[in-house]
Amino acid sequence: MIKLYDTRLRQKVDFEPIKPGKVAMYVCGPTVYNRIHIGNARTFISFDMIRRYLSWRGFEVTFVQNVTDVDDKIIKRAGEEDRTAAEVAEEYTRLFIEDMRAAGVQDPDIRPKATEEIDTMIALIERLIERGHAYAAEGDVYFDVRSYPGYGQLSGRDVDEAESGHRELRADGQGLEDRKRDELDFALWKAAKPGEPAWASPWGEGRPGWHIECSAMSEKYLGLPFDIHGGGADLVFPHHENERAQSECACDSTFANYWMHSGMLQIANAETGETEKMSKSLNNFLLLHEVLEQVRPAALRMLMLQSHYRSPLVFGEQRVNEADAALTRIENAVRALDWLLETGTPRGEAALVPETAEGELAAVLDAAALTDRVAVLRANFTEAMDDDFNAPAALGEIFSFVSDVNALVADATALAAEEAAAGRAARDAIVELMDVLGIDVAAAGAGAAYPVEVVALAADLAGYEGDDPEIAVAHLLEARATARAEKRWAVADGVRDGLAALGFTIEDTPQGARVTYEG
């Protein structure tokens, strides 16, 4: 049984989907006025991991994520750049999708845009007015917060102490609109202002408020109630509180059965070592696409998964490097198993253990021990992830398994059928479970993570003319083997030392040279 932490109940609960075997999941998407920063990315990567795990556990997941493509911030940016709001939104929607794909985040099943769902929002607002939960005021429409007794339950705020959830500023930028009956009330529809995008409505030309879009789109594409509503912790109030209120008042139904929120991201100050909020004023504001120019996506995801999705995450160069090194350790285990499966000496079921070229007995892989260990890994991984998607604990199980695998295969060179099968199962288990977390170590196991500098080394020492790091390493090992056979020790040592300087280690075995990369 999967347990998850429900924000509204403030405790872990058993997850029981509305329809057996299916999960309906809505996660708030971006407001597209700029490239997303790594704090946004932390939320999207967290829910991508949760989605992947639910799918791996056998659920049919329908994942909906909206795009807010009309908003004050978009309009402001359009004015600054002498463009239309639609042009700004279109550009940054495209870039958001590019950034998510670059970070290894799967596309949602449905990605509705606010501007394409105006009629749906108007219909929802009309229902709220008819039921006495909203009122029109000079072209605006506001939700009557005090008409909903459950307001504040999600965020844990006392309704009499809560600040307003209304996001729109007056034209002078100095305060909230004063057309409301109560300061707590928030805008469902905003009357048109000169030069701003606007649509026809029963209350005049205008545009939707921020909160109404997610209520309208989640109901349209998932129905009410649906299973999981997710987002960053910064959305609990006012956004999610307001969504819940207006949806439940309009539909006489529970909105979402479970509310999940990811923790916030902080930046580690390289000089002081202290953590601080990401801010342009502190010159530590990091956009995702800029980070990915310096950090490989798998290492960034590894860093983010090493902290529980609900916990604060500290981002800094040292932590990124540590995450990259941890990932490399797992990748090397996959490489070691690939190497063993490719080069291990085949032997018949009844054959004696063969002798190596030096006349020593070749080591035999302990198939039974490895098979048992794979079963333990899978069970422990599942147990960890079933406990509120505890990716750090799940990664800990993988690291423990990698240590055991390294010990079991360190000297193994002879493979009977059952031993090869055990080695393959171990390799596939690592690849599969890391893929559940959204990290492809199969590609890395084939050399995708090798540094590009090895290409130049291969050109200098092995005459390699290509640009593939993996092939470059193969050429260097071949050149070294030839030099050793011809007793040209200086050349052989040059290859070894050159690779070592780049983070490679060469181990000579009866089956040939085995290389590992530590970065």
Which helices and strands occur, and which strands form pairs?
Layout lengths: L2 E4 L4 E4 L7 E6 L10 H19 L3 E6 L6 H9 L4 H18 L15 H13 L3 E4 L2 E4 L42 E6 L14 E3 L1 H13 L3 E7 L3 H16 L4 E7 L2 E4 L6 E3 L10 H4 L5 H9 L7 E3 L1 H27 L1 E2 L16 E2 L2 H20 L4 H19 L2 E4 L1 H20 L4 H8 L4 H10 L6 H17 L3 H13 L2 E6 L2 E6 L2
Parallel strand pairs: 3-4, 3-9, 9-10, 11-13, 14-16, 15-16
Antiparallel strand pairs: 1-2, 5-6, 6-7, 7-8, 11-12, 17-18
What distinguishing features does this structure have?
519 residues
Report on the architecture of this protein.
The protein has a four-stranded parallel sheet, sandwiched between helices. A four-stranded antiparallel sheet has the order 5-6-7-8. A three-stranded mixed sheet has the order 12-11-13. Helix 2 (72-80) packs across helix 3, helix 8 (297-305) packs across helix 9 (317-343) and helix 11 (391-409) runs antiparallel to helix 12. The longest helix is centred in the middle third of the chain and has 27 residues, at 317-343. The protein has helices spanning 38-56, 72-80, 85-102, 118-130, 210-222, 236-251, 288-291, 297-305, 317-343, 367-386, 391-409, 417-436, 441-448, 453-462, 469-485, 489-501, and strands at residues 3-6, 11-14, 22-27, 60-65, 134-137, 140-143, 186-191, 206-208, 226-232, 256-262, 265-268, 275-277, 313-315, 345-346, 363-364, 412-415, 504-509, 512-517. Strand 5 and strand 6 (140-143) form a beta hairpin. Helix content is 45%, strand content 16%. By secondary structure, the chain is of the alpha/beta class.
